[in-house]
Amino acid sequence: MLVSAKEMLEKARDGKYAVGQFNINNLEWTKAVLLTAEEEKSPVILGVSEGAGKYMTGYKTVVGMVNGMLETLKITVPVALHLDHGSYQGALDCIDAGFSSVMFDGSHYPIDENVEKTTALIKICRDKGLSIEAEVGSIGGEEDGVIGKGECADPEECGRIADLGVTMLAAGIGNIHGAYPADWAGLSFETLEAVKKRVGDMPLVLHGGTGIPEDMIKRAISLGVAKINVNTECQWAFQKATRKYIEDGKDLKGKGFDPRKLLAPGYDAIRATVKEKIQLFGSNGKA
Ligand code: 13P
Could you tell me which of 93, 136, 160, 193 has the fewest CB atoms within 10 Å of its CB? Predict the structure, then answer.
């Protein structure tokens, strides 16, 4: 059964480790993340962007697929199904479809509007026992080939959103989605410390988990980060392994074309990446 991310994140915060959010795109991705988390005895969060939700034909399909796998793969570790960077309507749709957690990304709205929309969603999530993540200070990243600098959140604005009663808070601390540029200044621990001081016990979320050096990951966890999102690294691993399989001509061998064989190396590569991250974040053995 899917669970809210609340309890797993509070345990992670208290135990000084982080739960990984791994974004899923299809059946192989989902199975790879679930089986690896189970093998590592780790709680896990399946992230679904609105685009990935559409690709998988809608949130209801995602919920059906994940619930089916929890049962048939006999998954015993806590699993949350979480909307990643949702719009207001997207969050409502996921709640309706049966997600156990949502992120409302109101970081591009003026703070008052972010507060208003987040407040409305908190009420709905609280009534249904779901967890909710909010964001302050946009997470930069690559868009149309231009790499934006990660913004640093205003600790006071973080405090305002945290005080509303969200389950977890994503604060921009110079992190970005996708590859980090060669001249990246690194995470702003000064910002993270100031945010933590203002929001107290609130579990913090670090987006853009791909490519952050290990020492920074560990320091961020020691300063209150309890959830780390990883997406691009799994995509890189998947495409590298699948391309190699094609380049080696293996897809042309045997009888006909078998998509299960073609996707298998990518699936194995995701499993290896997720395992490495779970161990780095320290959530192995915690479920
Ligand atoms: P990366 O793609 O950089 O791993 O970031 C993932 C993320 O933060 C999803 O919300």
Answer: 193
Mean pLDDT of the region 48-76 = 98
The alpha carbon of 210 and the centre of ligand 1 are apart by a number of angstroms equal to 6
Report the nearest atom of ligand 1 relative to the CA of 210: 4
Residue 287 lies inside a defined structural domain of this protein: no
**Structural domain harbouring 262:** 6-281
| Domain count along the chain | 1
> Any residues with CB less than 8 A from the CB of 233 and at least 6 apart, and which?
209, 210, 211, 273, 277
d(CA 171, CA 1): 29
Q: Give the CATH number, domain containing residue 71.
A: 3.20.20.70
What is the pLDDT confidence band of residue 148, given thresholds at 50, 70 and 90? low
What number of CA atoms fall less than 13 Å from residue 240's CA on the CB side?
11
Whether 244 maps to a domain, the answer reads yes
Q: In whole angstroms, what is the distance from residue 13 CA to residue 152 CA?
A: 22
| Token pair listed for 233 | 């690294």
pLDDT at 142: 57
- Ligand 1: residues with CB < 6 A are 23, 47, 84-85, 177-178, 207-210, 229-233
Tokens 């973080």 belong to 158
Please name the residue whose Cα sits nearest to atom 1 of ligand 1. Answer: 208
Q: Measured from the CA of 103, which atom of ligand 1 is nearest? A: 10
Which candidate, 140, 156, 152, 227, places its Cα nearest to that of 192? 152
Is residue 173 in a domain?
yes
286, part of any domain: no
At residue 43's C-alpha, the angle toward residues 277 and 71, to 5°, is 120
Backbone angles phi, psi at 160, to 5 degrees: -60, -45
Q: In what order do the strands lie in the sheet with 146-147?
A: 146-147, 140-143, 176-177
Does residue 143 have a pLDDT over 50? no
Task: Locate the ligand 1 atom nearest the alpha carbon of residue 177 and give its number.
Answer: 3
Instruction: Give me the active site residues, please.
Output: 84
